[in-house]
Specification:
Blueprint lengths: L7 E6 L2 E6 L10 H12 L7 E6 L18 H19 L5 E5 L2 E3 L1 H8 L2 E5 L3 E3 L13 H9 L1 H10 L3 E2 H7 L4 E3 L4 H13 L3 H16 L2 H17 L1 H11 L10
Parallel strand pairs: 2-3, 3-4, 4-6, 5-7, 6-9
Antiparallel strand pairs: 1-2, 7-8
Helix pairs in contact: 1-2, 3-4, 4-5, 8-9
Amino acid sequence: MTPKYRDLDLQLDGSVALIRLARPDKRNAINDALVLALRDLFQQLPSSARAAVICGEGAHFCAGLDLSELQERDAGQGLMHSRMWHAALEQVQYGPVPVIAALHGAVVGGGLELAACCQIRVADESAFYALPEGSRGIFVGGGGAVRIPRLIGVARMTDMMLTGRVYNAQDGERAGFAQYLVPAGQALAKATEIARRVAENAPLTNYALMHALPRIAEQPADQGFLTEALMAGIAQSAPEAKDRVRAFLEGRAAKVTKE
C-alpha cells in the first residue's frame, strides 16, 4: 500500500515514484508541514523505486513560501528554522534515487529552492522563475544561496534578488534553470520518460552521480581525482556493471548514436 503524506501525493509507476505537491489552492506554496512531508517521504521511499519525479498539482509547480504561515522569529529561531529546511531538502538531493523535476507555471522562491535540489529539471513553456525574497525584506533560507548559484551563477541570482527580475521559460533554460524545455503541458510526460530511462541505470552508477559527483566538483583537484578513482572502482565491481560491460563487448548492447 502506498504511504500517505500531508500535502503530497505519491504514486508508483513501476520503478518510478511520482511525487505531486498537492496544495493547488495555495499554488503549491511550501509550508513547514510540506517540507517535513518531503523529508519523510524520501527517507521512506519504497525500495522498488529507482527514480522519482516531482511535479505540482494545478497551474503551478510551486509559488514559494506560504507567507500566510510565516511566523515572527528571533535570530536563533530563524537560524534553526532554516537548518530544518536544509536537512529536509538534503533528503531530496542526496536521497536514495535520482529526482527529476517537472516544472510549469510558477517556480518561485522556495519552489525554485526545491527544484534546485533535483538532479534534472524539465520545464514547459509556461514556467517562470523568480526570487522575490529580496523585495520582501527576507533572504533565501532553504539552501537556495548554495544551490541556485551553482545553476545560474552568483551574478544572476544577485540580480534576481536585488531587482525582482523574473525569467520566462525560454530565458530560464538558457540561464541554466532547466536542462529541458518542452511545449506547455508536456513537462510531466517528458520528466517521466527521463525517469524511466534513469531507472534503468545500475544503482551504483546513479548513486555515484547523485552523491559523489557534486562533491567531487567542489573538491581540490587532487582530492577529486582520488574520490573519482574510489567511486569508479566501487561502481565497476558491482555484478550488474560487469554484466553490462560484458554485454557491450559481446555486441549485445546498443552503441551510442546520434538522435
